[in-house]
Amino acid sequence: MFCFQCQETSKGTGCEIMGVCGKTPEVSDIQDLLLAVARGVAVYNDALRSENNASLEADKFVVDAMFISITNANFDFEAIKNKVKEGLALKKRLAAALVNTPANLPDECLWDGDESEFMTKAKEVGVLRTKDEDIRSLKELVHYGLKGMAAYAEHAYNLDKVDAELSSFMQRALVQLTREDISVNELIALTLETGKYGVQAMALLDAANTGKYGNPEITEVNIGVSTNPGILISGHDLRDIEDLLIQTEGTGIDVYTHSEMLPAHYYPELKKYKHLVGNYGGAWWQQKEDFDSFNGPILFTTNCIVPPSKSASYRGRIFTTGAAGLDGAKHIAERKDGQSKDFSEIIAMAKISQAPREIETGSIVGGFAHNQVIALADKVVEAVKSGAIRKFFVMAGCDGRMKSRNYYTEFAEALPKDTVILTAGCAKYRYNKLPLGDIGGIPRVLDAGQCNDSYSLAVIALKLKEVFGLEDINDLPIVYNIAWYEQKAVIVLLALLHLGVKNIHLGPTLPGFLSPNVAKVLIENFGIGGITTVEDDMQAFLAS
Ligand code: FS2
Ligand code: SF4
C-alpha cells in the first residue's frame, strides 16, 4: 500500500504499512484498483459521450468509486471488491457500445482479470505508478479534488439533482489522468479547472439541500439528552436523515446527529421533526468515547468512520449506508425506484436500547448559511463600518486527531473580541462550545453548516464584496485560516482558488502529497501558507 491522501498520513509523507486511519493494506490496494477501473470506465464513457451515447450508469459508477475511496468512508474489502467486479463488467459493456474505439487506449481500459488477479494488479496501479514526483503530486491533487467533488455530487444525486456537466468534467479529467505524457502545465490547468467545477458541485448540492429542506436558519441545538432510546446518525447525507426521521416518527425513539450531521438541525424541513432532539458528542475522531456512551445504534451515511477495536462496546451497533462501509457492520441497501431506504433493523435495535448517557448539557447555535447571513447583511455591514467588527476569520474545514490541532482552539480563544469566525465543516468542534459571546447580537462563531457549506462562506464573501463596492475579493477584511483533513477539503480549497481567494493558510500541516515544486507553485501564485504559532499568526493576520 501507499497512501498520502489525508493530513494524518504517516510521518507526513505516506502510509506504507497500515493506514493511520485504520485502512489495511488490502483495503488500500483494492481501493487503488477500484480507482483504476473507474478511470477505465471514464475513458470509455467519455468516448461514448462524443458519440452522444454516454451512459448514466457509468456516470453513477465513477461518482460512487471516487467517493468510496475517500478517507474514512469505506473499510469493507468485500464491498469494494464487488464494486471492482461491477466496474469491470460495466467497462466491457461500454466498450461494446462504442462505434469508434479511440486509438491508444490506456492500460486502465485494456486490463481485465478475475478475482485471483486483483491484488497483483492493484499493486501496479496505485499512487507510485507515476514516477515523476511533480506529475504524481499534481495527478493526485486532481484525483483528490475529484473525490471531494464526487461526494458532493452523490449527495445532490440522492436529492434528484444531477448536473451532466459535472459528470462530463469528472470523466474528462480522469481521461487526462490516465495519460503518461501529460505535462506539468497541463496538470496545473486541470487542477484549476477542477476548482471551477468544485464551485459548481457545491452550488448544486446547496440548491439540492435548500430546495428540498429550505434555507438554513438560526437554530439552537441541544447537546444534552432525552430519556428515550436514540439513534445516532453521522456523515453528511440529508436524504438519509430525512428517511430516518420519517421512519422513526411516533415510535418513541429520538434521533441525534453526530459530527458533520449537526447542520441537519438548521433546515426547516428537518428541524420540524420533534424527535430530532439534539447533537451528541464531538467531532468524528472522538467517536470511540461518544459511541460507547450513546447506548443505541449508530448510522454512518458517509465518512468519517474510525474502525472500532475488537472489544469496542458499540461494535455491534454500527450500521453503514451509501458510500460508507465497515467490515462486520450491517450495510443498509440503496433506495430502489425513488423509495426510502429501509431502516427498520436500526429502529428495532433502538427499541431495545437504553437511552443515551448524558455527556454534556447546554446548546450550540448555528444556521448561518448564505441566505440567513444575507438576511442579516445590514446589521453585519453596519458592524463593519462602525468598526464593531474588525475582521472575519474563515476557519472552515476539518477536525482531526493530531494534538497540533489544539492550535485552532487556542487561536479562537485568542482572537480579539471585535472579530468573527465564519465556519463550516467539522473544524468547528475545536471552538463551537467556547463562550466567545457576540457582537451586537451577532454571534462570534457563525456556523454555515457542513464542509460543503463552505460554498455559503464564498457566497457571503462575494456578497460583502458587492456591498462594499470592492474590485477584489481579497480586499475584504477576511482572513482564511483553514484546517484540512480529507479530500473534501481539497475540493473546497481548489474552489476558493478558482474564486480568486489568495493567501489561504492551511493547517495543521501542508499536504504530504504536494511535491516541493508543486507547493512552490501554490505559494508563489496563490500565497498559500501554513500556520506557525498562535501568537505569531495572530499578529500577522491582524496586521494583514
Ligand atoms: Fe469532517 Fe470527516 Fe465534512 Fe470531512 S467528518 S473530516 O468527512 O467531510 O469534514
Ligand atoms: Fe494514511 Fe490518510 Fe491514506 Fe488513511 S487516508 S491510509 S491515514 S494517508
TrEMBL record:
GO-annotated biological processes: response to hydrogen peroxide
Q: Which reaction does it catalyse?
A: A + NH4(+) + H2O = hydroxylamine + AH2 + H(+)
- Residues at which [4Fe-4S] cluster binds: C3, C6, C15, C21
State the InterPro entries in the record.
HCP/CODH, Hydroxylam_reduct, Prismane-like_a/b-sand, Prismane-like_sf, Prismane_a-bundle
Q: Which residues carry this modification: Cysteine persulfide?
A: C398
Q: Where in the cell is it found?
A: Cytoplasm
Annotated positions binding hybrid [4Fe-2O-2S] cluster: H236, E260, C304, C398, C426, C451, E486, K488
Query: What is a single Pfam family found in this protein's UniProt entry?
Result: Prismane
Give the EC number(s) under which this enzyme is classified.
1.7.99.1
Mind listing the GO molecular function terms for this protein? 4 iron, 4 sulfur cluster binding; hydroxylamine reductase activity; metal ion binding; peroxidase activity
- The transmembrane residues are none
Does Transport count among this protein's keywords?
A: no
The answer to whether the entry has keyword Kinase is: no
The record's keywords, sorted A to Z, are: 4Fe-4S, Cytoplasm, Iron, Iron-sulfur, Metal-binding, Oxidoreductase
Spell out the GO cellular component terms annotated for this protein, sorted alphabetically and separated by semicolons: cytoplasm
Q: How is the cofactor bound?
A: Binds 1 hybrid [4Fe-2O-2S] cluster. Binds 1 [4Fe-4S] cluster.
Q: Which domain of life is it from?
A: Bacteria
Question: Which cofactors must be present for this protein to function?
Answer: hybrid [4Fe-2O-2S] cluster; [4Fe-4S] cluster
| NCBIfam families with a match to the protein in the record | hybrid_clust, PRK05290.1
The record's similarity note reads: Belongs to the HCP family.
What does the function comment of this entry state? Catalyzes the reduction of hydroxylamine to form NH(3) and H(2)O.
Q: What is this protein called?
A: Hydroxylamine reductase
**Organism placement in taxonomy:** Bacteria, Pseudomonadati, Bacteroidota, Bacteroidia, Bacteroidales
